[in-house]
Amino acid sequence: MMSDPRNLSATNKALLLRSLNAHSINTLPELRRIERIFAALNAPDTKQPMKAAWVYYVNYHSLLNELRGMTRQYPFSSECLDDAKRRVAGGAATSQGNLCWQVLMKVKGANLIPHYARLLAAKPAMWGGRAPSSTEIEKLAAACTTEWTRALGTLLRHWDANGQ
Q1: Residue 47 falls in which region: left (phi positive, over 0), alpha (psi -120 to 50) or beta
Q2: What is the pLDDT at residue 46?
Q3: Taking 90 as the threshold, does the pLDDT of residue 164 lie above it?
Q4: Fewer beta carbons below 10 Å: N end or C end of the chain?
Q5: CA 87, CA 75: separation in Å to the nearest integer?
Q6: Which residues, 6+ apart, have CB-to-CB distance to 129 below 8 Å?
Q7: CA–CA distance, 94 with 125 (Å, rounded to integer)
Q8: pLDDT at 66
Q9: Phi, psi of 26 (to 5 degrees)
Q10: Residues 124, 73: Cα–Cα separation, whole Å
Q11: H or E segment at 152?
């Protein structure tokens, strides 16, 4: 990252905006890097493209893919993420702040991970079609919860407690 984002040339700013609009930036660290640059610029013409880039990232599986890339042993639950997205969309704060941060905080704050880990662990499909014992469910749910919580924490480290 450049030493002072306020020195960003008009050409480089246009390239970043074009990249956002083309959805060619699809990782959370890169989106956060650009968001920080644009925040330092405080230019009104960057706000809508940045917001649209976050919406695209969250809604078109980039967030899920990033979470699943960190949870290879027990892939992150799409149902968990979809539940968090529905809850955020139904809330009053959706127009404020970063959609990705809001969704990740909803997963954390609503304690969705243990719930969806247990649902997954209880599915007979996870056990070759047979009904698992309660001990097996608890062990698998605990393993999923640990891995998913670690991945969630890794992504949330890109923001401070206030989503900045």
Answers
A1: alpha
A2: 95
A3: no
A4: N
A5: 22
A6: none
A7: 35
A8: 97
A9: -135, 25
A10: 18
A11: helix 134-156
Q: Distance (Å, rounded) from C-alpha 18 to C-alpha 66?
A: 22
Give CA torsion, residues 18, 21, 92, 158, to 10 deg.
-60
Structure tokens at 44: 């009104």
Residue holding tokens 């979470």?
A: 67
Interval 93-146: pLDDT, tens: 656 679 999 999 999 999 999 999 999 999 999 999 999 999 999 999 999 999
Contacts of 59 (CB under 8 A, 6+ apart): 85
Residue 22 neighbours by CB distance under 10 Å: 9
Residue with tokens 């610029």: 41
Query: CA of 150: how far to CAs of 30, 67, 108, 146, 157, in Å?
Result: 20, 10, 11, 6, 11
Q: What is the pTM of this model?
A: 0.91
Per-residue tokens: 164: 């900045």
| 107 touches 80 (CB < 8 A) | yes
CB-side neighbour CA atoms (13 Å) of 124:
3
Residue 119: both structure tokens together: 């649902």
Range 46-66 average pLDDT: 96
